[in-house]
Specification:
The structure holds three protein chains of three kinds. By secondary structure, chain A is α/β, with parallel strands linked by helices. Chain A has helices at residues 2-22, 43-62, 82-94, 106-119, 148-163, 176-191, 210-218, 230-242, 258-264, 286-294, 304-321, 326-335; strands spanning 29-36, 70-77, 99-102, 122-125, 141-143, 168-172, 196-201, 223-227, 248-251, 272-275, 337-340, 343-346, 359-363, 369-371. Chain A has a seven-stranded mixed beta sheet with strand order 7-6-8-9-10-13-14, with helices on one face. A five-stranded parallel beta sheet of chain A has the order 2-1-3-4-5, with helices on both faces. In chain A, strands 11-12 form a two-stranded antiparallel ribbon. In chain A, strand 8 (223-227), helix 8 (230-242) and strand 9 form a beta-alpha-beta unit. The longest helix of chain A is centred in the first third of the chain and has 21 residues, at 2-22. By secondary structure, chain B is mostly helical. Chain B has a single domain (15-138, 153-295), classed as ABC transporter involved in vitamin B12 uptake, BtuC. Chain B contains eleven helices and four strands. In chain B, helix 5 (156-178) crosses helix 6 (180-190). Chain C folds into two domains: 5-74; 86-415, no CATH class. Chain C is 68% helix and 5% strand. The relative contact order of chain C is 0.13. The chains are: A alpha/beta, B mainly alpha, C mainly alpha. The interface between B and C is large, with 67 and 61 residues.
């Protein structure tokens, strides 16, 4: 039984290898899969990723490509659904693509990266901030964005040292991203002796927050930290103003979007936000920003420059090593520094960025922001 | 929580009533369609969503023409949204449900789920998936309570929601009770085949039911559009689910039941948030539904089903 | 012609009203302000064409209907694929089933890794469809919260592995059993509800389970889900007692102590496709077992009772059948299959979180059952293939894919309301 089984598998493996041999792609293009949501409720964040990565591919090709080869962006839609993310990962393997920029949602990145690590595919996520992704000792997995667990303490330390509120409410949207940040804020606040009187989850997609606002008002809360995205915070701000609840609010980079002000209007004035440094405002990126604007695209989205950087890191590593062998490339990426629109970046052992820091900004009702001294 | 604060309780009661009234408005559509042809119109939430988008289109359109007088904006948005939503409601029934009538009950249900996915993506495709927002049209309100204690606020917008809901419900009840069409509706709900034999154009009655249900969903769309100021293509799904729950809670097929069910559901959610934890409000809402159905298997005001042989 | 004119004009107006506010106008954000802009010229052309088409179609509807009817009568009648004879029909279905099994067995060795992976997903849905088919198709109980049992299965494996280190093979029966227990506990009070009340209660139950999994962060990880769930291993056959090999893993390196990578054990080169193929084979075995068990059940008294109850509840009761027990058995057995499928899903994903178990998943499984032709196993299998492959094929259309998915569901229901392969109902008619 065992013998025949082994023999069948043997013959199968040879046939599979033969098929693999015929499937080798044309030597003159290097395909990079851009995996993220093109459809579904978070498709707008997927768009940021696509425009950033596509711009990088375009500009690198215009500048002569990578060692004479051109890059090609292949867009793969996972709709932010973990089940589809695994299917996308297997499709990437199937099509012989060795480079992935993505995925976007941490819950998609996590199962997909299992496949990439196993298959030796180089993956750089420009958007997933869950700490769990780089906690597993994987070698092929990198990210060009900070972590939830960094962002929380930055915010909490600022609250504890500068704002010094009496009663804090920490809210979150019961999703991986929001709850992760909210818990780390709560933890750091309590370590610093700040009184957290409420820690509650709302439902993402809800529109009515009047009950929880009344509850915060009743509890005499004077500072609210919200872990989540802008649609819910926008409504919370708007409804708080209507109900005469005037605490100071603060949120993570997921709320730092112009739409927040569109939703909340005047109520968004003075909100505190932790954001990755605004790479599109760096003087070095002036021409790049203009290139985006010439195409009618918005370079200020949180994941545009990080996606650009992810492609750039891959291209530079391929250029320097002269190979597309991902095993060699990951060693190179781990040990070198890269010049990207995000500045000079280098990676830690686990694939996280070295020294990535979030800044604190005050948000204004017209959707602009000004940096705050930490 | 500290001691019981009547003003805080009143505030949460008002919050619950506001959200409950709009559940009730949407629930009417479910309950009328169910009462007449016994199908769950899963796409109803999407019709509410389209009503909300139409209201936004009307409001921003009027703003572009410099119309600022609030009653005009409100009535204009209301009429426009009702027109568009009822047209969509009519078309959906005609295209996706009428060809299926008379078969297995599950078949229109699947068609409705398909229609719901279709409409959601139709709007997403042309209007984008992100939230769109309009500024406040009506702000301010009354405040009660001691200056140093908890202050209950009742906004003008909430009053507008209550008044509009009560007026629409009253008009509908009157219409069903008194008008010729209303009588035909009741007859069809009682016994479709018999009504047909007696010369009632049942197809017309069914179309009419969809149109009325859609128009009321549009009213809810306009009110909530102005209250929250935000919409997106996915808003209809969860609202539809809640309204459907409200309809069943009150006894599906019964108009007062839908109203009662909506208000009970809204208050339950607000009170769970207020005195327990917000993350469990849906658990408590559904738990309450299960509990009520266990003791009253056809909902609070539902007629006990007669087993026909 | 004038007879159709008013209605044609009316439908044209309806088409215009349905399309112009959404397609023809666009709400655009300018800074923080919302403005109304006209849609693209393409959109307006499309609206114009749609209005015109609907108008002309309705205007000339009698003529069109006449023409197609004429065409149909001139064409030879399509020969029925299925013979009338019941026994022969059953034989043909059996042949098709065997052919399908044969194809399924050869499939992984003849196609690419991505295709095998997709086929594994299809098999999960086949299993779910077959399980729900017992509840909806056979027993006629509308269950909108089937995904809850799927979640119970998935979380049982994930949690048992995380806290007690149980392997896939040990967790599989437990997962099925736990899901069945949940089915039993839920079924006991709610099964006295009828029709749509049952539907909404099961829907509510599905939501409650998902929210509880999401809220109970200390145990389930809440929205973070549970990661690092090991893939199934191949139990090693102990030929050499000195080699204490527990199981064979399909990764490049063994992750757990006592396990040996599959390729090292057999001394062959590592190939990443083995893992995917092995998962596929397990899924296939599970599906075959499901098909077999349900086939037997359908022929047992309990299976007959399910169908009898669906057809006529009052007659059943008057014949002395215990209504609650029959419904409960359908509910419990149906749930157990979702539990098995959930266990396998957790193993395939390696990571699960509550967002995989939303209501839309229940709706899709239900659509599979209805589309397949309620009660028919072959139909359910075909429908599961269709419903899983369709979004993948439509991936090329990216933007339009969900739009098409919804449309296909509607069109299929209108075109074939009885399902792809309608269930054959045993019937006897008195000779005249």
């Amino acid at each position: 039984m065992k013998k025949t089984f082994a023999r069948t598998l043997l013959s199968v493996s040879t046939s599979v290898m033969l098929m693999g041999a015929t499937a080798i792609t044309h030597a003159d293009t290097i395909q990079i899969a851009i995996a993220g949501p093109v459809t579904g409720p978070v498709a707008q964040y997927g768009d940021m990723q696509v425009i950033g990565a596509k711009m990088a591919v375009e500009q690198i090709n215009k500048a002569g490509g990578v060692n004479g080869d051109t890059l090609e962006a292949v867009i793969m839609d996972d709709a932010c659904d973990p089940k589809q993310a695994v299917a996308v990962a297997n499709k990437v393997v199937n099509e012989g693509i060795s480079f992935v920029v993505g995925h976007l949602c941490s819950s998609s990145t996590q199962p997909a990266s299992d496949v990439y690590e196993d298959e030796g595919i180089l993956m750089i996520t420009p958007a997933s901030t869950s700490p769990a992704i780089t906690e597993r000792g994987y070698k092929m997995i990198f990210r060009t964005i900070g972590l939830d667990s960094d962002q929380g303490p930055t915010a909490a330390k600022y609250i504890a040292s500068k704002v010094k509120p009496k009663k804090v409410a920490v809210l979150h949207d019961k999703q991986q991203y929001g709850e992760g940040i909210a818990s780390s804020v709560k933890k750091t606040l309590e370590e610093n002796g700040i009184n957290v009187v409420m820690f509650e989850g709302i439902t993402a997609g809800d529109k009515d927050f009047s009950a929880i606002i009344a509850k915060m008002k009743q509890a005499g809360v004077d500072f609210v930290y919200y872990g989540g995205y802008h649609p819910e915070l926008g409504l919370i701000l708007r409804q708080s103003r209507q109900k005469g609840f005037n605490a100071q609010f603060m949120g993570p980079e997921g709320v730092g979007n112009k739409d927040l002000s569109a939703i909340a209007g005047e109520a968004s004035e003075g909100l505190l936000v932790t954001l990755p440094p605004a790479f599109d405002l760096r003087p070095e990126n002036k021409s790049l920003v203009e290139a985006f604007k010439a195409k009618g695209e918005d370079p200020s989205g949180a994941f545009v420059m990080t996606s650009y950087a992810a492609v750039k890191v891959m291209a530079d590593a391929i250029k320097a090593t002269g190979t597309t062998d991902t095993e060699k490339l990951q060693q190179y990426i781990h040990t070198h520094s890269f010049n990207t629109p995000m500045g000079d970046i280098s990676f830690k052992e686990n694939g996280d960025l070295k020294g990535f820091e979030f800044d604190i900004y005050t948000w204004h009702a017209d959707g602009s922001k000004t940096p705050v001294q930490k | 929580m500290l001691a019981f604060d009547p003003f805080y309780f009143a505030q949460q009661l008002l919050n619950g009533l506001t959200i409950g009234s709009t559940y009730a408005l949407i629930a009417i559509g479910y309950t009328m369609v169910y009462g007449i042809i016994g199908m769950i119109n899963f796409a109803h939430g999407e019709i509410y969503m389209i009503g909300m988008y139409s209201a936004f289109v009307a409001i921003t359109g009027m703003a572009a023409f410099g119309i600022e007088f609030l009653p005009v904006i409100f009535v204009g948005a209301l009429l426009f949204a009702m027109l568009i939503s009822s047209t969509v409601g009519w078309a959906v029934e005609r295209v996706a449900y009428r060809p299926l009538r008379g078969g297995n009950r599950l078949i229109p249900l699947i068609s409705a789920i398909g229609m719901s996915i279709f409409l959601q993506n139709y709007v997403r495709l042309f209007q984008g998936s992100s939230d769109v927002a309009i500024p406040h049209l009506l702000s301010g309100g009354y405040t009660f309570g001691a200056a140093d204690g908890f202050q209950t606020t009742l906004s003008y917008m909430q009053i507008l929601i209550f008044v509009t809901t009560i007026v629409s419900m009253g008009a509908l009840t009157l219409f069903i009770a008194k008008s010729r069409m209303g009588r035909a509706c009741r007859a069809v709900a009682e016994d479709l085949k018999m009504a047909n034999l007696l010369g009632i154009d049942t197809n017309r009655v069914i179309s009419f039911t969809f149109v009325i249900g859609a128009a009321l969903a549009a009213v809810a769309g306009v009110l909530l559009g102005m209250y929250y100021g935000v919409t997106n293509p996915y808003i209809g799904f969860i609202a539809g689910l809640k309204a459907f729950t409200a309809a069943v809670l009150g006894g599906i097929g019964s108009l007062p039941g839908a109203m009662l069910g909506g208000i009970i559901l809204g208050i339950t959610e607000a009170m769970t948030s207020a005195y327990f934890a917000t993350e469990y409000k849906d658990v408590v809402a559904f738990g309450l539904l299960v509990l009520i159905l266990l003791f009253r298997p056809t909902g609070i005001l539902g007629k006990p089903e007669v087993e026909k042989i | 012609m004038p007879a159709t004119l008013p209605f044609a004009a009316f439908t044209a107006l309806v088409t215009f009203l349905v399309s112009f506010p959404i397609m023809g106008l666009k709400l655009v954000k300018e800074g923080t302000q919302l403005t109304l802009q006209s849609g693209t010229p393409g959109a307006w052309t499309f609206i114009g064409l749609a209005v015109l088409t609907v108008f002309l179609f309705q205007l000339f509807r009698p003529q069109i209907a006449g023409a197609t009817a004429g065409l149909r009568s001139r064409l030879p009648a399509m020969p029925s694929v299925m013979p009338e004879d019941e026994a022969q029909k059953a034989r043909i279905e059996r042949v098709i089933l065997w052919v399908l099994i044969g194809v399924a067995l050869i499939f992984p060795f003849a196609s690419s890794r991505g295709a095998v992976d997709l086929a594994t997903l299809v098999l999960i849905y086949v299993m779910l469809g077959l399980g729900l088919n017992i509840v909806v198709g056979l027993a006629g109980l509308l269950d909108l919260g089937y995904v809850a049992f799927y979640a119970v299965g998935a979380y049982s494996y994930a949690l048992l592995n995380e806290y007690f280190g149980l392997s896939f093979w040990a967790a599989l029966p437990i997962g099925g059993l736990l899901a069945a227990t949940f089915g039993f506990i839920l079924g006991f009070p709610v099964l006295r509800l009828r029709g749509d009340y049952l539907a909404i209660v099961t829907l509510g139950f599905g939501e409650i389970i998902r929210i509880l999994l999401n809220n109970w962060t200390s145990v389930t990880g809440g929205p973070n889900g549970i990661g690092g769930i090991p893939k199934p291993t191949l139990p090693a056959i102990q030929t050499d007692p000195e080699l204490a090999v527990v199981g064979l893993e399909f990764g490049r390196r063994a992750k757990e102590a006592g396990n040996v990578p599959f390729h090292e054990y057999f001394g062959i080169a590592y190939n990443s496709s083995y893992k995917v193929m092995f998962l596929y084979i397990i899924a296939l075995l599970l599906v075959l077992a499901t098909v077999y068990v349900i086939n037997r059940l359908m022929r047992m008294p309990v299976g007959r009772a399910w169908e009898a109850l669906r057809e006529d509840e009052i007659a059943c009761r008057s014949l002395g059948l215990n209504r609650t027990a029959i419904k409960l058995s359908a509910f419990t057995i149906g749930a157990s299959f979702a539990g098995f499928a959930g266990c396998f899903f957790a193993a395939r994903q390696g990571f699960i979180s509550p967002e995989s178990f939303t209501f839309i998943e229940s709706a899709i499984i239900l659509a599979i059952v209805v589309l397949g032709g309620m009660g028919s196993q072959l139909g359910v299998i075909l429908a599961a293939v269709l419903m899983t492959i369709l979004p993948e094929v439509a991936r090329e259309f990216a933007e339009y894919r969900m739009l098409m998915f919804g449309l296909v569901m509607v069109v299929m229901m209108i075109w074939r309301p009885e399902g792809l392969i309608p269930m054959k109902r045993p019937k006897l008619e008195l000779a005249q």
